[in-house]
Amino acid sequence: MNNLHKSTDRQSAVRLLACIDAGGHEPLHGQWDPEVVAVLEGQARLQAFDFWMRYPDYLANELLDEFEGGGGNDLIEIAKKIFDDREPDLRHLPMVRYHFGAFEPLDNALAILRAGDLIRIRRTGQPGHVRQHIYLLTQKGRSAMAELAAAAPELAWYRERAKLVARVAGRLGGTALKDRQYLQEEYAETDLSRPIQPIAERVKKRLSDLLEESS
Length: 215
Description:
The protein is α+β, with helices and mostly antiparallel strands. It is built from eleven helices and five strands; from the N terminus they run αβααααββαββααααα.
């Protein structure tokens, strides 16, 4: 049933807006137009964020890694809530594995954001040989995300989840984040051009064991 889950372009637009808002850093003074309030560098970083938004089981596993590495007790509680809310079933949105990891064309969703001047996109490199995509969040985009989150709990989920993904990702670039995702055997061994396999059952067992140990 999971493979039937699909996201509309508008849903993807909200998800990506949340990722750029949470995952971007404050721009350097004078580097961009005054309307720009955050900068997310690299399509690979955006795709890595999107993967953890769409695979709650993989995100929960990262939370458990941080918990075992000395992180706060809230990490295991958040992971528990992910499973209590059945997110690995209800919020799973498959991504296909390509040569450099999880990938999905983002053009349609990003076009929605660009049309409203919620984000702007700049590219470095030469025509036909783009070296890097740079996603610029405008004040209008940040305000729109805040208004969406205030409008409905379902939309607020995107903002809060993107903040959690940003906490896990830190300031790492896209390549480093995808390397972390490749550490999961199911991810690495998914055939090219096939949906990346979930790890929900394995992570659920790990969570149960950790909860038993901590009690």
